[in-house]
Automatic annotation (TrEMBL):
It comes from Trichoderma gamsii. It comes from the Eukaryota. Residues 19-111 form the NADP-dependent oxidoreductase domain. The keyword NADP applies. SUPFAM superfamilies: NAD(P)-linked oxidoreductase. This is NADP-dependent oxidoreductase domain-containing protein. PANTHER family: 2,5-DIKETO-D-GLUCONIC ACID REDUCTASE (PTHR43827), NADP-DEPENDENT OXIDOREDUCTASE DOMAIN-CONTAINING PROTEIN (PTHR43827:SF3).
Amino acid sequence: MDIPLLPLCVGNQIPMLALGIGTAWFKEAGDTRFDQRPVDLIKKAIEKGFYHLDCSEIYGTEEEAGRAIQELGVLRKKLFITNKVDQGINNIPAAIEKSLEILHTNYFDLCVSVSDRQIDFAAEELVAVIWFISHSLPSRIPTTSVHGSQCK
């Protein structure tokens, strides 16, 4: 399947369709049971041409996504991995490093920090952006997603 690519202003492209890794297999906090079903689906999706994987630590399925990537043996450069940070928002770099380890990869193509908590993101996220750049972890500049009520 040829999925259209959207050109980005930084010169690369993002697949316009992504496989969401969490909605169907979302795990409640503390649920560490391994589920083979997402592994099998992720592998089939990649084999069919879905190279954009939408992951998040809050889904609780990073281990399954990492296992699928490992088992399939797909070249990392073929994948576009988006990751969202929520639970680790108080230490974004540590949360990203943990997710990288769980997913068995050395970078994310796009990182988004999200939270519904009423806190001031600016300083922590600026530190995280500087950390990302200095460690050359993402191939794209990280972005932030906040709720409108937090922007007042």
